[in-house]
Design a protein that fits this description.
The complex is a heterodimer of chains A (172) and B (193). Chain A is mostly helical. Helices cover 77% and strands 0% of the residues of chain A. The longest helix of chain A is centred in the N-terminal third of the chain and has 23 residues, at 38-60. With 193 residues, chain B is mainly α. Chain B has helices at residues 2-19, 23-60, 63-78, 87-100, 104-121, 130-140, 148-156, 166-191. Chain B folds into two domains: 1-61, no CATH class; 62-193, no CATH class. Classes of the chains: A mainly alpha (172), B mainly alpha (193). At the A-B interface, α1, α2, α3, α6 and α7 of A face α1, α2, α5, α6 and α7 of B.
Chain lengths: 172, 193
């Protein structure tokens, strides 16, 4: 699987360039013109990312999430849901690297093939950093009013966690 | 909405830190966010320029258009507002395909180009259009055939079958995508009433 994945990028590059040559366009100039758009795009994404990283970092390091976990723990134990996956489920919309660090810890303690680790991996792998995608995409093109986007995004993430809790045990 | 979320994150986080007497943590976070963002952007910038260059070749040669034709019947249903044969479909399908193969770095510039071309179709430049939100939901569902990072992490810890994880991931993200698209329709009907 990973070999297919590592072949994929070189194949795309090769196909795109060969097709460009085949259609007789100046691929070099075309590349330069496209790449030039990278700078204005990077600049316009910087400020919205800065704002969001600033806010998210203060929130994540404030310790408030620990109180929240303590509050939710009894409920989860009652529902027979492994408490260990809770941090990853809550943090997923905010941070990708945080989830990966947590996965690393879980693999170390429970092994990569345990139910807890697989559940956490599936939660990490079946969604994306909703908050950042919204900030990045809307911030870069200058959208101020995002309407119901955040609600739909977060509700879908919550739904994904519930589906994972139901489906993953079926694989064991 | 983003405005309220941002204020909430900062006010709640700061108050919590100040009340528990951890003002030094707050100070460190305020000072380090700028550096963290710059480092992130510096990592994205060269890769993004590279992919924008490659994609421009694909666009000018007409390859992007050809690729988008593969999944365009489906996309026409999901994005009824976008005129058929519009360039946005090319960017949207490239973004979805790159995400599916776990190429996050390539997916972001395609996604941004898609958003730019959706912005051209948008009547009110400061309000998100319906198709923009739909496109965003597809992205946040993280539909992925090969979750490369997780598979490599599992290999690192000697998993018996590292790539097995791709199966439940694909099933679950697909189910949540369907849910997200339905929810998106419901919300947009209620919003535009």
């Amino acid at each position: 699987m990973t070999t297919i994945s590592s072949m994929f990028i070189p194949i795309i590059v090769l196909v795109v360039i060969s097709y460009g040559v085949f259609r007789k366009i100046n691929v070099y100039d075309s590349f330069i013109n496209g790449a030039k758009e990278g700078l204005p795009m990077t600049i316009s994404m910087f400020f919205s990312l800065l704002a969001m990283i600033f806010g998210v970092n203060i929130f994540l390091n404030s310790g408030i999430i620990d109180y929240f976990f303590d509050f939710l723990k009894p409920i989860l134990v009652l529902l027979h849901i492994p408490v260990e996956v809770l941090p990853i489920a809550i943090m997923r919309p905010f941070s990708g690297s945080f989830g990966l660090a947590l996965l690393n810890d879980l693999y170390k303690v429970y092994g990569p093939d345990s139910l807890i680790s697989v559940l956490a991996s599936v939660i990490q792998g079946s969604s994306d950093t909703t908050i950042y995608i919204i900030t990045l995409y809307f911030g870069t093109i200058g959208i101020k009013k995002i309407k119901y986007a955040l609600w739909v995004g977060l509700l879908t993430d919550l739904f994904m966690v519930i589906v994972a809790l139901v489906i993953v045990p079926l694989f064991f | 909405m983003i405005n309220k979320l941002w204020v909430g994150l900062i006010v709640i986080g700061s108050l919590c830190l100040l009340l528990t007497g951890k003002a030094d943590v707050l100070n460190a976070q305020i000072l380090s966010s700028g550096k963290a963002t710059l480092e992130l952007v510096m990592q994205i910038f060269p890769l993004m320029s590279l992919w924008l260059g490659i994609m421009n070749i694909a666009r000018e040669s007409g390859l992007l258009f050809k690729v988008s034709k593969f999944i365009s019947p489906l996309l026409h249903k999901i994005f009824p507002e976008i005129p058929k044969n519009h360039e946005a479909f090319g960017f949207i399908s490239s973004n979805i395909l790159s995400n599916m193969f776990g190429l996050g770095n390539a997916a972001t510039p395609f996604g941004l180009k898609a958003m730019e071309s959706l912005q051209k179709l948008n009547n009110n430049k400061e309000d998100a259009s319906r198709s923009m939100i739909t496109f965003l939901i597809i992205n946040t569902c993280g539909l992925c055939v090969i979750p490369t990072t997780i598979i490599s992490l599992r290999m690192l810890y000697d998993s018996k079958d590292a790539s097995f994880i791709a199966v439940p991931c694909l099933i679950i993200s697909f189910i949540s995508l369907i849910f997200g698209l339905i929810l998106d329709r419901i919300f947009s009907r209620r919003y535009h009433k």
